């Protein structure tokens, strides 16, 4: 199970990076979302995937699911959700003001 | 246990939220921000004194014992850096009203500013790797807000790249933390250090270490990952650039220093050789960048890069002297970069342009500004007896003792380059006949701008001239940093 999840995370990273390297702004934003999904799946996988094991609610539980990665992934999801929404707004505004959504034309050397 | 360690994070955080409620009442917001910054400074001074007198302050949040809960650790190094952050914050808040337009100030500048300070202090004080990621995000989120303040064409264009590179490296950071978690089963720095030590940092752990380095090097702008820095630090307002240049890259360097002295300190031949070579390239390429342009702000932005190289060099040499040099240089560079960006802001404010070719003769109109810039140049380039010299001396001493001739040479050459790039601004901008440039007949008053600059510059000069007083403290910190057992003991209490 861990291997399948790792491969899936790898595919997400791969497609994410491919999209990040595109010229169109919207594709780049989608790329960042895919990369963060890949990262989140990696966190979940790294805490070992166990089927049917409960979290620790009472003392003396022998077989339990590690709660820490779930706490980490939750924090990370919230953060990447926030950044992605900010990025969408910013990309829209930047495209509007610069009259292009093509990264090639957004290079620029003027600072005013 | 004392709650003192959380105050440098909680105070600015609360201040940032409170000031958002009256963001349109500028006078009240300004006074409130200055008062809050002074209190913040007072608290960090208290922490600094207490840590130096009685050892690290460790706070276990929510009373969860050390390896299980989140810990905040105010040890000598982080207390010193939190103090420096507070000083820069106070200067920036005094400088801000003159530098920003009223509209920019109204649109939550002070909120973002306080959240940035809170995130930076948090990154310095936390003793937990995942928490470090969270504080990185807090300070980055605030910096995203600050960098687009003003809504200019170039600003939007460059901030997009800034956000993208930081977002990508943050995601890599989380992935790396999860790798480390799967190997050592903890995200607490002290416990991770202990466990990595137990298995003597085998192959996979070194790979994880390099991944961590990649993430922090992106934030710190080490060669070849510095390409995002110059443009995105040039486009925002001067006070924002000052905050970024003084604080953000230094958080990256601090993280490298912390992780590689505390956790990954067993495979030194590999990582330190890498650091030293990257330091050489960082210094050389940064200086070439600084010499390549006529935009004054871009020159200063490029000058951040060789400074990062100097600090990385100290970490790469990895002796007590060199680490002391790195720490001294870290504090010196935080202050002097803030001074330089603020000075450049004042210069652009009075000259109305950032193009060096269109400037000239400013010293006839603004002698104080001119001399302050000259002094700042000497401090930055490391002319004795100023603070840059002390840091560089320690670094070079450490380098020569370890016979790393190549990096010592690169450091000396890049110092000359830095001096030359700064002198170009002085010669072209300040020298010359008084009537070279057309200045507005009504000279804008600079007093509000010169006060905070003067304050920081004085601190910087005292740091250099009074090195006798500060050096024992820095030496003690370096000794502490080189003894990771002290940190582990103070957190895990074994």
TrEMBL record, chain A:
Intracellular or extracellular location(s): Cell membrane
Protein keywords: Cell membrane, Membrane, Transmembrane, Transmembrane helix
Recorded superkingdom: Bacteria
Keyword Transmembrane: yes
InterPro entries the record matches: CPA3_antiporter_subunitC, NUOK/Mnh_C1-like
Primary localization class, coarse: membrane
Database matches in NCBIfam families: PRK08600.1 (NF006372)
Name of the protein this chain belongs to: Multisubunit sodium/proton antiporter, MrpC subunit
Source organism per UniProt: Salimicrobium flavidum
From TrEMBL, chain B:
Keywords attached to this entry: Antiport, Cell membrane, Membrane, Transmembrane, Transmembrane helix, Transport
Protein's UniProt keywords contain Oxidoreductase: no
Ranges annotated as spanning the membrane: 6-22, 29-49, 69-95, 107-126, 132-150, 162-184, 204-228, 235-254, 274-292, 304-329, 335-356, 368-386, 406-427, 448-471
Protein's name according to its UniProt entry: Multisubunit sodium/proton antiporter, MrpD subunit
Keyword presence, Cell membrane: yes
GO molecular function, one term: antiporter activity
Annotated InterPro entries: CPA3_Na-H_Antiporter_D, NADH_UbQ_OxRdtase, ND/Mrp_TM
A single Gene Ontology CC term: plasma membrane
Protein's membrane topology: Multi-pass membrane protein
GO aspect biological process, one term: ATP synthesis coupled electron transport
Family as reported in the entry's similarity comment: Belongs to the CPA3 antiporters (TC 2.A.63) subunit D family.
Pfam family membership, one: Proton_antipo_M
PANTHER family recorded: NA(+)_H(+) ANTIPORTER SUBUNIT D1, NADH DEHYDROGENASE
Main location: membrane
Location(s), subcellular: Cell membrane; Membrane
Domain NADH:quinone oxidoreductase/Mrp antiporter transmembrane: 127-415
